[in-house]
Request: fold
Amino acid sequence: MHILATEGLTKRFPTVTALDRLTVTVGAGVTGLVGANGAGKSTLIKILLGLLPATAGTARVLDLDVATKGDEIRRHVGYMPEHECLPPDVSATELVVHLAQMSGLPRTAARERAADVLRHVGLAEERYRAIGGYSTGMKQRVKLAQALVHDPKLILLDEPTNGLDPHGRDDMLALIKRIGTEFGISVLVTSHLLGELERICDHVIVIDAGRLLRSSAIAEFTQATQTVTVEVEEGTQPLAERLTQEGQSVTQHGRLLLVKVSGPETFDAIRDAAVDLDLCLIRLEQGRHRIEDVFREEAANV
Amino acid sequence: MSEIYDIGYRHYDGPRLGRGYSTRALTLHSLRGIFGLGRTARSKIMPFALFVIMLLPAVVSIAMMALIKQRGMPYSSFAVTMQAVVAIFLASQSPTVVAPDLRFRVLPLYLSRPISIMEYVAAKVVAMTVALFLLVAVPLTLIYAGELLIDMDGPTVPPQTKEYLAAMAVALLLALLLAAFGLAISSLTPRRGLGVASVIALYLLSSASVPVIYATLASADNEEGAAWAWLLNPFWLVDAVQVWLFNTPAAVPEGGYPPGPAPAIITVVLIAVGLGALALRYRKAAAR
Reply:
């Protein structure tokens, strides 16, 4: 069963077409939704939550029609908005308990769940303090906790790493990965940074100007290319010469050698060369396409 | 020996209650917010100080009944006499009900849950109405309890139960009228300070203009027209409804109210206008 599916989904505002005949399906696991600002990501999320009527087309979330079953969908879906959305004068505990009740959890269950999810997102004693004094990273964690508190089947995360420093970004991405795997909750996460999604997603959907650019499994994006990176401690130069002599095409990038793979014999040649020259081999790594490269190519073709 | 286990993520398979439950929870949450419960100590000062001020006349009334065997304030005019305190409570607390959710953009967190925007608005109106009702009804009830205990007129004269119940019913009407308007104005000004100022300004305008208009019309020998001037102030407007419904004495310094159901009709129309404005405001906020 698909977690969500859209069919010819179109949303026109008086001056702009936000979604243009978008047809996508999303399965279980972590799915990235990529697009530049204004590509229609937030509009799509609002339609999926049943908060905005579509101009044309249909969308189903958890096999429920967004046009008629909005409240049932919202009961089983969590949403983390992109913007700041936390009142400063209440504590994280109080807010998350309250929002759990808003999702229909009885008071005692709401308290237990709130304590659980706040622990999972990594908020300790500070959860009893007013949110106004929190750092950006802590606020992002509270926003994530409120989306998880009612144990949804699917969570929609709108730019969860916005405004975080590199360390906070890594923590947030690791947490999202855990939600998708360990917690068993499907995730739809938007970002305009492809490199981030590459690390956590099983599947990536690329939209631009409301239209589907590409939807495929992450493996297809990052398929192995025909190069191998070689790093040796010393003697980069002799190795490059030796490999060139043997008919391999070699390009030097500082201390690294990029060798084009013509077949299994390329790896043998590198190994033999390193042994013969008595070199200390530090790294032998298959080069990968980055999603960003793919996206650049796709965008250039449009 | 005890060990701490990381039991990992646990799924929730307990009950998920309906939208009625969520709406009630939101009402209670908002009501607690109005009185600063679960908030900082600073946010409790204003509502509780005003509440205590409202109780003072009740205490004085009871003391008067006990010591000098005289009634203090009649039930029917309690709200009108204390109107400045009620108005300050309305101005200072109604922004706390609606402004933060708009200003800090908390609304999407509610909208992404089962309740609809109109249930959200209804919960806020009910919370503010209940708060204002408590503000007037608790002192009234205290006076009534005092009257029953002291039994000033002896066992032969029944207590003023009818007057008390009439005042309670009218307090509810007043609370609804004030809540609808206070919240509508506060929701249009997401900054709290601005909301406080707008509500108090509107109240001052409505109460300060009354004597001026009344005096002008009365000096022109237009007693009938002058009577309508009292209806410009919400407290006298609702008192006029009380006079019409329960035949209580009018709580005005001079003259009287226009007779008949006109004040009641105006009150109902004003409540509808206030609620309509709120609904429109939030329909727009939800669409963003």
In short: The radius of gyration of chain B is 22 Å. Residues 17 and 106 of chain B are 22 Å apart (CA to CA). DSSP finds eleven helices and no strands in chain B.
